[in-house]
Structures are given as structure tokens and as C-alpha cells.
Write a structure and sequence with these properties.
The protein is of the alpha/beta class and 606 residues long. It folds into four domains: 1-130, 3-Layer(aba) Sandwich (Rossmann fold); 132-165 and 212-235 and 245-301, Alpha Horseshoe (Serine Threonine Protein Phosphatase 5, Tetratricopeptide repeat); 324-471, DNA Cyclobutane Dipyrimidine Photolyase, subunit A, domain 3 (Orthogonal Bundle); 505-605, no CATH class. The protein contains 23 helices and 14 strands. It has helices at 19-25, 49-68, 80-91, 104-119, 135-141, 150-157, 172-176, 186-190, 214-225, 228-232, 252-256, 262-277, 288-300, 324-331, 338-350, 355-368, 374-384, 390-400, 417-422, 427-432, 452-457, 473-501, 525-540; strands spanning 4-9, 30-37, 73-77, 95-99, 123-127, 509-512, 517-520, 553-555, 565-571, 574-578, 581-585, 589-595, 597-598, 604-605. It has a five-stranded parallel β-sheet with strand order 3-2-1-4-5, sandwiched between helices. The termini are far apart. Residues 3-132 form the Photolyase/cryptochrome alpha/beta domain.
Length: 606
Amino acid sequence: MVVHAVHWFRKGLRLHDNPALQEALAGADTARCVYVLDPWFAGAAKVGVNRWRFLLESLEDLDASLRKLNSRLFVVQGQPADVFPRLFKEWNVTRLTFEYDSEPYGKDRDGAIIKMAQEFGVETIVRHSHTLYNPDRVLEMNGGNPPLTFKRFQALVNRLELPKKPLPTVTAEQLAGCRTQLADDHDERYSVPSLEELGFKNPGKGASVWKGGETEALERLGKHLDRKAWVANFERPRIKAHSLFASATGLSPYLCFGCLSCRVFYHHLRELYLKLRRRSSPPPSLFGQLLWREFFYTAATNNPNFDRMEGNPICVQIPWDHNPEALAKWAEGRTGFPWIDAIMTQLRQEGWVHHLARHAVACFLTRGDLWISWEEGVKVFEELLLDADWSVNAGSWMWLSCSSFFQQFFHCYCPVGFGRRIDPNGDYIRRYVPQLKDYPDRYVYEPWNAPEAVQRASGCVVGVDYPKPMINHAESTRLNIERMKQVYQQLSHYRGLSESLHVFPHSPHFFAHTRSCYISVPFSSLQLLLFFVAALEMAHKDSRMDAHVRSQVVTSTPFPHLAPFFVFFVLSLHTHTHTHTHTWSSGLFLIRLLPLKYMQNGQKQL
């Protein structure tokens, strides 16, 4: 049987350790390597020029590597569902291979393509290589549920075999047996487009520190592993001022786009550590960033709403403020806090910031200062970050906003002190907030405290040349910690009630603020009734509630036609408990639907 194979590149933009590509070449008579400019990258999100540039550079590098092997990359613009029927017919395709995508959108897309391929009589082969572990296998070990703590995740993967050893790089000999004749108009039809061709006007040169592609990724890996002293004497890394600047050994964007195999990185690091330390097993912290990546991929794999609050079963439903003006100041680096503004400026210019800098700006936007939803932070990072994996980006924001995975809400990053501890001289601020480059070290983190004479001598007057702080950090943090405290106190109380009543097998969505108890729950009739009573029990203990109005409960419903309404419950019920049976008796049960109103700060109010 004649085999005409197509390998579909998506994230695994490399020739080394590419199991699906190896499957395409095995025994094939012809083989084509295809990249479809499809919505996994652009999607509904706004993707910035730096990410597009990195992608196009990676595709150009992949094409150059294939040229050296007497092959080429076929770049086709369009959606896969529209592209593949044409390619199947035009090239008489009999085999389609691609790397497994564990994210919900990818699963849906790939399922549709597999079904389509079957209709055309095309064999499909899918192989894992974007993650160290199969997320579906980890879920299976955890009873079908995602592990919601990193400790639990580590316990699960420690029971698995070590990640598979990486496969060798594709060779010219492999491709020689399945060489495909290229059309004369190949460059015209299938070349990598430019930024201008994609609609970017005056895109500029971009940050030279991040050049896309497998070639650059492997060079960086070599430099990273050359730091043998660091590997041999490994301990949890301590961030220093120079760590804030992008370096020639950074790898995260290359792992995100699959220019570098995570298995190659893992095993090279492991083998070098064992060689230098001669220990039976390296510490898990050596692979910390890789394992956090795996953790979030696993948590997201069966959750299509992982990047939003609504419909997200693991997300605490906190009533964040809606403040577009404050959001814009944060995103554009105009907060008046030099440490925060420097981070956001570096992110916008270069597409990368240190992970502790990400922690600082995420805390500032959400639970630390501005009390704005982590969903907004996800969107900004999705646009600007080179390494914005969908799973890792959303998971990190939920974690840092204390919406899931992490509940130490009393720990907040100070937008002055945290940066000063890392970089006492303020070199980082002077690089990315040049208005403050001539400020004395004493005032560079808090220029508003500098005497007016110092401000004028430094050429930057606060409120004129640089914005005043947009918020009182100490006051905002105190208030927000109290808000979070109320959320988690009521969440803990409600969980205890629901467990005793056997109402919900999984944690309900839950949130609270100073006036009402907000809960999002499944809407079956029995659960709804039990929910009313559980809500009453909570509200009854709230001294701020009117004695005659036991509770004010707002439900967040998945039914769109109910979204514009509040449900106001007046309940007076007594509970009689018999063995595993709950009887609710007496009292008044009144439900009214009231129009939705909003307070000036964007929070809901009856």
C-alpha cells in the first residue's frame, strides 16, 4: 500500500524528540510537514506582535532545518476544518500524524479532524510529547478529578515511571525515503508569512533577546546546562537583581511553542545532576518550573472554562470590582508604583518577565490592591507573554489571586518593599521607567516621598512627569485581606454544612462580600432546596442581617435568561433530621425575581 503522509505541526515546532513526526516518516512513500495558522494561537484572544513574531521566527527556523534535509514546511492559512479536506484530496493523503493536545479546545478540534479523516479514509496517529506526563493518566489515578494542590500532584506523578527518554532528531536519511516533489510555486503558496502580511503595521524589530526557533532553543539549552556549578550545588534559587532581566539561557517561550522538548530538558538536567552529585535521585525542586507546568496542564485538561470564573468548578467566585480605568493603568504601566510599572513595561516591550515579577503584578491587580478579576490579567498576559500557555497562564492567575490552589490570602506583595529587597539600587526601574533614572536610590521605589527639590533636580516631578500612586497600598491591602477573610470564612462554613447534608459531592462555587452571600450551585430541584436551607443557616449567624430578613442570597446561574435577575429569599424553616433523611417543615417560602442593579463600584446590589 502506498503511504502519503502528512505531519501536522502545532506546538511541537521541532525536529528533535518528535514522536508523531517519526510516525509520519516510518514507511511512508511521501511525507509533507504542514503548519496551519489556526485559532489555537490567535483564537478569540488578542495576541500581541511579540508572540506573532516569535511564532513566525520559529516557523522560518523549522523550514530552514527541513531545507537542510531536502524537504520544506508547508504553511497553510485557515482553519483546520476547512484546510484538511482540500489537502486530503489534493495530496491523496493516507496518514495524518500530530502531537496530542491536552487542552479542551485542542481536544475538540482534534476530535473533529480525526472524524473527518476517517470519512476520507485517512489513518490518524497521535503521540504525546508536549508534557512530561499524560494528564489524562494523572486524572485517572486521582479518581477522575484534577489534583488541586501541588503536593497531591507530586504524590501522583511520583507513582508513575520517569518521563520517557527523548527520541533522536529526524535525519536526512529518514526523509530521503519519502521525498516529496515540490511545486515551482511552493514559496508563493506555502511560505511563512510576514508580520506585515498578517496585518501588523510598522511592527518594528522586536526584542533581540528572544529569537524564535528550535536552533536558538538548543543553543540556549547548552548554555543553561553549562552552568554545572549551579546544577551541582542546586538549592532553591534566590532571585537577584540581574535575574529580572532577560538572559540568553531563558527557555520558557521555547517550551511553550515546543521549540524545545520538555523531555530533553528534563533528562539532560537529571543526568547532569546525577553525574555531578552522584545521588540516587535529584530533588523535585530541580524541576520545579517544569512540574508546575505539568500541574496546570493536568488541572485544565477537562475544564473548558479553566480561563474564566463562570462555569469553572475549581474557582472561588469572588465578587471582584469592575474598573476599566484602573485596569488600563495597570496594563499600560501607569500605576504610579515604579516597581509595578517597570514590570508591565518590560512585559509589553519584550514579552517576558521573571516569575516573581509576575507574582507581584498579579497580586497588585487582584487581591493585593486593585481588587480586579484575575480574568482580566489572563487576557493581558495572553496578549503580551511569549510563554502564555493557556493552561499555565490561567492556572497561575487563579493561584496568585487565591481563586484556586492557594489560600494564603494574608500574604501580599508590597509594590515598594518587594522590589527593593531584590534590587536595592533600582537598576531595573531605571531601565524600564527611564523618567526615574536620575532619582536617588532612596526614592526610586517611592518617588512621591522625595522632596520637591529632589524631584526637580532629578528631572521628574510626580504628578507631572510621572503619575502619582493610583491607590493607597496599605489601606487597600488591609481592606482586601478582610474581604478575602470573609470569603474563605463563609466558604469553610458552607462546605461544612453541605458535607453534613450530603448536598454537593464536589466543592460548590462560592463567594461573599459585606452584604450578601453569593453562591453558584447546580440547579437540580432537590439541591436547590437544600441550598436554600444551607444559605439560611449561614445568614442566620450574620449579625449584620436584619432579624426579620434572614438572608439575602444571590445565585449565579448557568442559564442566560436568569442572569439579569436576583433571587431574594425569605425563609423561616426548621430542620428535623432522621437517619440520612432531611425533613424541612413550617415557615414562609417566598421567591421574588428582582431586576439587577449595580452599585457605582460595579458590585451587585439588591
